[in-house]
Predict the structure of Centromere protein J C-terminal domain-containing protein.
Amino acid sequence: MTTISFSNGDVKKIMPDQRVIYYYADAQTTHTAYPDGLEVLQLPNNQIEIVFPDHTVKCLYSDGLKETSFPDGTVVNVEKNRNKLVLYSDGQRESHTAQFRRREYLDGTMKTLLCNSRQETKFSTGRLQIKDEEGNLILDKR
C-alpha cells in the first residue's frame, strides 16, 4: 500500500488491488475508486453515494431512503418502509406499496393493481374500469 499525506490534511492511499482511497479532510469525506470504474463516496452525515461504471448513481441516506438515478433520467426512490416511487424521464410515475402498484400516465390516466389482483383504471376522461383478479370486467363507469 502506498500512502500520500497532503499538507491540507487530505490522505491518498493506493491499495495493492489498485483501489484508490482518498480522504478529503475539510469535507470529512472518503472517495474510493475501484479499478472497474465503481466509485463510492462516504459523507460525514453517513450518506453513501455509489457511482457505477454505467453512470448509474445510488444514494443511501442516513434516514433509510435509497435513491437510484439511471443514465436515461429515471429515478427510483425506496423508503425505509419499502414503498417505492419510480419517476420516469418522460414524466410518468409509478408507486409501489404493500397494498398496490399504480402507474400514472402523462394524460392523467391511472392504472392500479391492488394486492388482491383486482385492477382499476381511471381514465383522464373520468371513466372508471374495474377488473377482477382473473381480468374480467366488473365495472365500466363512464
Remarks:
- The two ends are 71 Å apart (CA to CA).
- The longest strand covers residues 20-24.
- The chain has a mean pLDDT of 95.
- The chain is about 0% helix and 50% strand.
